[in-house]
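JOB MANIFEST
job_type = single_chain_structure
chain_count = 1
residues = 231
[input]
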Amino acid sequence: MPLPTNNVIFETSKDWETWNRNITALARSLNLWDEVQGTIPWVSQPVIPNRNDYMERVPINPPLPPGATPAEDSATEPTIQVAGGPAIPQTRSRGQRSVRGTPGRGASGPETHEWQYTTGAAKRWAEDLNLYKILSNNFNQQLVHRTSLTKYVNETVSDTLRNNHCDPSDTVTIWYTNLKRVGEAEEGTMKQKARQQYHNAVHQLKKMPKDMDKWILQWETAMATAQRHKV
């Protein structure tokens, strides 16, 4: 992203107007002006969804068919006993991955649920993962633009102002707010001074000045200063 070519170093209030115009133009070109002003927040770095957080707690045993009775505990797969027939192992659906809860008997008997990565869980995780990729891409794009803006401030603000008002741990929003306060405060003082010089210059002379050339130079300086500060 090209930086403004008419760069000035922001050292005093006389530099504020031009510097502010440059930083505003750059921030707008980077689509960051609202963030710099603090009207909208900066994009936060998203957190990738953890697949394990989508596991669901489901019953271990499906409902028994009519006439069936639970079989004795087995060291392998749970089984059910159908009257007049062999014990039938209970199998999980193909593709389901499960993590059995802590075994043992509770107040109501043996463990009856386990954590499974179900089809519904897989769908929700996939949707959240796609959203994460979109948010991550937006964050990375803005990070590049923020780096350009930070670089411009570091290169065009005097060491004194930067050390006093641009803490590296703060955002560019806070930097700009601090610098604006300094620039506009000094600008107000300079405007008052320019207004007084202007009134002195346009005041009707009661007598001819001793040094006409010096008076003309002062008059022209007062006019230029008043125009620059929009007096």
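[summary]
Residues 73-83, 87-107 have pLDDT under 50 and may be disordered.
The first strand starts at residue 56 and ends at 59.
exit_status = 0
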